[in-house]
Design brief:
Low-confidence stretches: none
Order of helices and strands: HHH
Number of strands: 0
Strand content: under 5%
Largest sheet: none
Structural class: mainly alpha
Length: 125
């Protein structure tokens, strides 16, 4: 089952990188959002996919009695979901304000600091 998840995560990573290489801001933002979900799945898969009991230790013992689930990847993923949602909301507002100011969502047309008609810098030597 973990091999299937590894292939799924690879496809999700590939889709997110493809979207982040686009010229439109919305596609870039969707790529970033999908990338964060792929990283969450990667962390979850690295913590092993098993159907185990919750990590609750009885009062009578110091360690768990049987095999329990690993709580660390679950806690990391819950934190990452909140952080990635807030970053996505910030980037969405930033992209909207950029579109309002510049009138375009094309990344190549957002080169306001570069004057039109000037020579381009050399690419190689």
């Amino acid at each position: 089952m973990e091999a299937g998840f590894a292939v799924l995560i690879a496809f999700i990573f590939a889709a997110s990188i493809y979207l982040m290489l686009a010229r439109q801001l919305i596609r870039i933002l969707l790529g970033i959002s999908i990338l964060s979900n792929a990283v969450n799945l990667l962390i979850f898969t690295a913590g092993r996919l098993e159907r185990e009991v919750p990590p609750v230790i009885p009062n009578s013992s110091l360690v768990s009695v049987g095999v329990t689930a690993n709580p660390l990847p679950q806690a990391l993923i819950l934190t990452a979901i909140v952080i990635s949602f807030s970053v996505f909301a910030f980037l969405l507002v930033l992209a909207f304000r950029t579109y309002q100011d510049l009138g375009t969502d094309d990344a190549n047309e957002m080169r306001v600091a570069e004057p039109k008609g000037d020579f381009k810098p050399p690419i190689g030597y």
